[in-house]
Amino acid sequence: MAKNTRQLHKADQLIEEKTRELRQSDDKVMALTTRLDTVTAELGTKIAMIEELRAEVHQLQPTIKIFEHVIERLEDDRRKLSDVLDCKICFDARVDVVWQCGHVTCGGCA
User: Fold this and answer.
1) pLDDT averaged over consecutive 10-residue blocks of the chain (110 residues)?
2) At 63, which helix (H) or strand (E)?
3) What is the pLDDT of residue 76?
4) What is each CA distance from 105 to 12, 53, 93, in whole angstroms?
5) Are 46 and 40 within 8 A, CB to CB?
6) What is the pLDDT of residue 110?
7) How far apart are CA 25 and CA 30, in angstroms?
8) Distance between CA 23 and CA 29 in Å, rounded?
9) Dihedral in degrees, nearest 10, Cα atoms 70, 76, 79, 85
10) 50-61: string of b/e by CB count within 10 Å (b at 16+)?
11) Which of 14, 37, 43, 89 could form a disulfide with 109 if both were Cys (CB 3.0 to 4.6 A apart)?
């Protein structure tokens, strides 16, 4: 009978130990679940922000195309002005001398 009592006592201790381990595991699972819920909510917020940004980019596409066109025109105008204002002899300086015949050069080439 004492042997059975010892076995029951050991079984009770083992049950208590496993119950503590189970509670600790449950606490860890709860903490991880809470963290997962937090991360999921943050991810949802970030996804919503990305969608908003995509919508803004989509709305800005026509404006971007207009700016690209304006930039092309400005670059073309700059090339044309450079053709007119650059000295045709040295191509390094801007014209600042007008000859009687109507030709133009920079002061260094004059």
Assistant:
1) 82 93 95 97 97 96 96 95 89 90 90
2) helix 2-85
3) 96
4) 107, 53, 9
5) no
6) 86
7) 9
8) 10
9) -80
10) eeeeeeeeeeee
11) 89
Q: How many Cα atoms sit within 13 Å of 37 on the Cβ side?
A: 6
Q: Please state, as a whole number, how many other Cβ atoms lie within 10 Å of the Cβ of residue 89.
A: 15
Q: Which residues contact 93 (CB under 8 A, 6 or more apart)?
A: 86, 87, 106, 107, 108, 109
What are the tokens at 57? 């980019």
Q: SS in 3 state form for 2-58?
A: HHHHHHHHHHHHHHHHHHHHHHHHHHHHHHHHHHHHHHHHHHHHHHHHHHHHHHHHH
Amino acid symbol at 67: F
Give the position of tokens 């004492």.
2
- Identify the pLDDT of residue 18: 94
One-letter identity of residue 87: C
